[in-house]
Amino acid sequence: MVKSMTGYGRKSLEVEGMQLHVEIRSVNHRFLDISTKLPRNLLFLEEKLKRLIRYHLSRGRVDLYVTLEGQGLVKRTLHVDWNIADQYIERLVDMKKRYELTGEITVDMVTRLEHVFSVQEKEEDSSILHSNLLQAVQESLDRLSTMRSEEGRSLEADLTSRCQKISAVLQKLEDRRPSVVEEYKERIRQRIEAYTKEEVLAEQSRVLQEVALLAEKGDVTEELTRLKSHLDQFSKTLQKQESIGRRLDFIVQEMHREVNTIGSKSNDNLVTEWVVELKSEIEKLKEQVQNVE
């Protein structure tokens, strides 16, 4: 089954008066590379979230973004430092006596004194947030996987179509082989006649020897056989229920090598034209395979 490495999933939840947003994006990559961006108070869950992603995905560059809006899990309390307040009052009373100052020590005056009042924050139980975060990441992964599967079906259709085109060209190459030998034979006979000024029969031994030699040098039977085998492996691999991208990439490389060999052996115009066509289709296969998980 073909899956793309490109996908996107998003989920938002309201948790304890906060908005929790999760986004997961994936693009092509040779291996599985996971990057996370989490709020500071959720960093301890990073490895657990990565394990969850690894369970669902095998390849691709994956970016996980988690954002929190609001302070629902933080409880604020006003704290009075009575020790500092007592010292302030005592010192103020001492100053009045020492310098014979007038006036009352008021509440307004005390509230402006530094370090007497402070706001303290305390995090409430965050287990609800953690469970909701895992749920949001799971749903985002499900949506991303669905998108990768949908794109994978399009990829499979395109790859199958290109394999069929390659197979059709290979059949033309195979059908062309007997004609190529006959044309070799005729060209050699004409060249010998041109040099010797004598009529030469195509069945004469020296013509047959030259044809056999050229036919052996230009024989692409093995390459065609291997190419057909690679195509068969490619088609079977598309049906496997696992990560297949790297295997497909290897098969395409082998196909490209065989086609290069055919091109180097041939001096037939039609064969050369078909080799160019094969290279074009195989190159397109290679480009598409880079998207397969």
From TrEMBL:
UniProt KW Cell membrane keyword: no
Domain Endoribonuclease YicC-like C-terminal: 174-293
Ranges of residues in domain Endoribonuclease YicC-like N-terminal: 2-156
Coiled coil start-end: none
Pfam families noted in UniProt: YicC-like_C (PF08340), YicC-like_N (PF03755)
Keywords associated with the record: Endonuclease, Hydrolase, Nuclease
Keyword hit for Transmembrane: no
Cofactor(s), by name: a divalent metal cation
NCBIfam families: YicC/YloC family endoribonuclease
Family from the record: Belongs to the YicC/YloC family.
Protein's name in the database: YicC family protein
Organism of derivation: Halobacillus salinarum
